[in-house]
């Protein structure tokens, strides 16, 4: 494909396979095959791996005799070959000055059937990194495709028919690609609102956080509301820029406002400084029993227990409904990244649980970011959920979050709590980030969101290019984290490196 990163059309669908030598095309296919095995080795992804690699062999016009080798790569053979294949590709004359052509070609290939699978985008992100291309170039190209779609109109339905009799393969693929792109980008969650009450849910609506269009969507979920500055669902996400098409979920505002005011009241009026310090010490020392809490605090527990209990229950129902909305493709056939804090993270957790129970749920969710999540943190609860997340699951936690510990005290004796400690599973997708140096208490997830997003590697409007999320090095970090107990720090200066314990400082180096 000859399309510049600035979006200037040169030759809209020139197959990269025609520009590469035969060894170059083999290296291209081999790199994708080995990477598929690296990222999606589980049996649940086998059909995706085989379909992707079979289609790519045809796309690159490789000999059918090569297919069995490529399938072997996709099934785990040649796991050490990524650097070799990448180096061979970078030496190709056609790619010497523009390796971005591979990324562009992979995007085009992935979109041609009208479906942008989240796993395909994670694969593209990883190969972009392997070829030493900045992640921003990938995003710019995706944006250029959306812009080209806006100016493309088909006047007759026959134009959408792909005739096998066409002799000019380029014209056929161009039309096929545009049809696919139109299908992918055809959805939007703007204005989605429940037509009728769903179970106990009274409010469920998507509100726009941005006004652009992109081939991937980000949905943010707020954990509570407060009167004043933080009285809207959009308030915490003002700096979020994970994609140009972003929404926040408005849900059960009446109950979330009651909860937020109760949290503020408990913190400001009912707990004096001495009690706060004692509670922090109690949590940090690992004593989590009812006897640890001062009697004076337990006497006012009813201030928070009722609204917290109501919101715990409703967040689970909202999460299940969110899963059904995503399964119905209200967002189009595009990858979705979910970001949430506190009860918003709980919504996402139950969304993933619901997706796990449904067919055709794999390939929808790209990445997940959970901050201060009041959910189970045990490995047995999280290992299955990795099946429905193509990219990363980031668990941001604070060991000294006494408020979360207090409101979740009835369960925390028996269960690990994700928002208080790392989730220790042996999976490269799981990234734990200790936010203890940033988050002094649970309410800081609302008030310090800009800083928190940067700390976990989520793009914000203030991010520099080198700060932006890049999947490749993070997967390398995921392997090291699994060996070192599941903890890591995503540092602003080197996203993707294994850092020291976050309590040593936000800028601690590996």
Question: How would you describe this structure to a colleague?
Answer:
By secondary structure, the chain is an alpha/beta fold. It has two domains: 2-184, no CATH class; 204-504. 43% of the residues lie in helices and 9% in strands. The chain has helices spanning 22-39, 46-59, 67-74, 82-90, 100-111, 118-130, 135-150, 169-184, 253-270, 273-284, 295-298, 302-327, 343-357, 379-382, 402-407, 409-412, 444-447, 449-455, 471-483, and strands spanning 2-3, 9-11, 204-208, 217-221, 246-251, 336-341, 365-371, 393-397, 430-434. Strands 3-5-4-6-7-8-9 form a seven-stranded mixed beta sheet. Helix 14 (379-382) links the parallel strand 7 (365-371) and strand 8. The two termini are 39 Å apart. Mean pLDDT is 79; it is low at 1-13, 153-167, 283-291, 464-486 and 489-510.
Secondary structure topology:
Elements: E1 2-3, E2 9-11, H1 22-39, H2 46-59, H3 67-74, H4 82-90, H5 100-111, H6 118-130, H7 135-150, H8 169-184, E3 204-208, E4 217-221, E5 246-251, H9 253-270, H10 273-284, H11 295-298, H12 302-327, E6 336-341, H13 343-357, E7 365-371, H14 379-382, E8 393-397, H15 402-407, H16 409-412, E9 430-434, H17 444-447, H18 449-455, H19 471-483
Parallel strand pairs: 4-5, 4-6, 6-7, 7-8, 8-9
Antiparallel strand pairs: 1-2, 3-5
Helix pairs in contact: 1-2, 1-3, 1-4, 1-6, 2-3, 5-6, 5-7, 9-12, 12-13
Q: What string, H for helix and E for strand, traces the elements in order?
A: EEHHHHHHHHEEEHHHHEHEHEHHEHHH
Strand proportion? 5-15%
Q: Helix coverage percent of residues?
A: 40-55%
Largest sheet: 7 strands, mixed
Radius of gyration: 24 Å
The count of β-strands is 9
CA distance, first residue to last residue: 39 Å
Strand order of the largest sheet: 3-5-4-6-7-8-9
Tally the helices: what do you get? 19
Overall form: elongated
